[in-house]
Amino acid sequence: MALKSTIFKASLAVADIDHNYYADHALTLARHPSETDERMMIRLVALALNAHKLQDVCNGDGTLAFGAGLSNPDEPDVWLRDFTGQVKLWIEVGQPEDKPVIKACGKADEVIVYCFNHAAEIWWRGIENKLTRPQNLSVFRVPTAASQSLAALAQRSMQLQATIQEGALMLGDGNRSIDIEPVRLR
User: Fold this and answer.
1) CA 19/CA 166 separation, integer angstroms
2) Is the entire prediction scored with pTM above 0.85?
3) How far is Cα 87 from Cα 82, in angstroms, rounded to an integer?
4) CA 50, CA 21: separation in Å to the nearest integer?
5) How many Å apart are CA 159 and CA 9, to the nearest integer?
6) Is the pLDDT of residue 79 over 90?
7) Eight-class DSSP state of 83
8) Which residues are registered as beta bridge partners of 10?
């Protein structure tokens, strides 16, 4: 019998001072049986860091949502689609292979990869030369200590506040907060 995804609900208040974006997001995260709390929370961080694009790119008339990710390799972990269904932003989390990333660059206006954990640097050195052509690709590394700390915030029902200033994210639940400063690799 196949294991089912675990459903998490998150109320995310985003205060993006850098982009003058302030909004509340009611989110449902389906954690695949093979996904860790750390990876799931990195997806949430990626959404928070890019939530301003809902206004900046789609003028508020779009959908920012979690994709099927691990369940469907043809969908991203997070995406932004405009009202016509055009994919404006495709976000991958983890250490994807080069071919799916290049394919995503052909499907979306912008592609961002958020890699994390101790092996991220090794992954990037091995794949960097294969990803030189796409002009619409950005790659960020979430520091290991910060990504591992995120797992402690994972609850089936979450009330989170995300404050973004000078490219850094402070994510908290009222009891504890984690500072995350993604490092741009590309």
Assistant:
1) 10
2) yes
3) 7
4) 10
5) 9
6) yes
7) T
8) 27, 158
CA torsion angle 64 66 72 74 (round to 10): 30
Give the chain's largest Cα–Cα span: 48
The per-residue pLDDT for 137 is 97
**Using CB atoms within 10 A of its CB, is residue 78 exposed (0-12), middle (13-18) or buried (19+)?**
buried
CB 115 within 8 A of CB 124: yes
Distance in angstroms (rounded) separating the CA atoms of residues 139 and 54 = 20
Long-range pairs of 63-70 with CB within 8 A, sequence gap ≥ 24? 64/25, 64/89, 66/27, 66/28, 66/29, 66/30, 69/32, 69/35, 69/43, 69/93, 70/32, 70/34, 70/35
Label residue 180 exposed, middle or buried (CB < 10 Å: 0-12, 13-18, 19+).
buried
The C-alpha angle 117, 141, 166, rounded to 5 degrees, equals 130
Per residue in 98-142, pLDDT (tens digit) is: 999 999 999 999 999 999 988 999 999 999 999 999 999 999 999
